[in-house]
Amino acid sequence: LSLYSSPARETKYVENPQTQLEQGVSRLRHVMEPYTASSCIDDSSSQTLSHYIKALCSDFFSEGYEFLQNPPAGFYPRLGVIGFAGIVGLFLARGSRIKKLVYPAGLMGIGASMYYPQQAVSIAKVAGTQLYDWSLQGYIAVESLWKDN
């Protein structure tokens, strides 16, 4: 026997309206469905595209598999140090989300630059020129806003 009476069920399910992001993702999924669904491949162009993508993926993964089967000397210890630096960065980055992005990436970058200094220098040069270009574009935009007012 029940000790309490059950309340009357007068609730109705009301679906929340879709946001613009959800509508955009839905449209994209509907547009891409013929290309991603394996059961919808009927014409020869879709089959050719599918075979081409499979060939590219198989080449990419086979090269990666071969590299991991015969790595260069000291690859796994270097990978371990760089990965451990990222884990330490996650541990040190308690608090804000920005810290959780910057600390692991920064420590992994420092670890990788210790083992691969020539690549780090080339990346730093490219990043420096990009940063200079962005700052110059920002300066020009602020200057044009300032002159307009």
UniProtKB/TrEMBL annotation:
GO terms for cellular component: MICOS complex. It holds the Pfam family ApoO. InterPro entries: MIC26/MIC27, MIC26/MIC27_animal. The chain crosses the membrane at residues 75-93. It is found in: Mitochondrion inner membrane; Mitochondrion membrane. It comes from the Eukaryota. Keywords: Membrane, Mitochondrion, Mitochondrion inner membrane, Transmembrane, Transmembrane helix. One of its GO terms (biological process) is cristae formation. Component of the mitochondrial contact site and cristae organizing system (MICOS) complex. Component of the MICOS complex, a large protein complex of the mitochondrial inner membrane that plays crucial roles in the maintenance of crista junctions, inner membrane architecture, and formation of contact sites to the outer membrane. Belongs to the apolipoprotein O/MICOS complex subunit Mic27 family. This is MICOS complex subunit. It comes from Pelecanoides urinatrix.
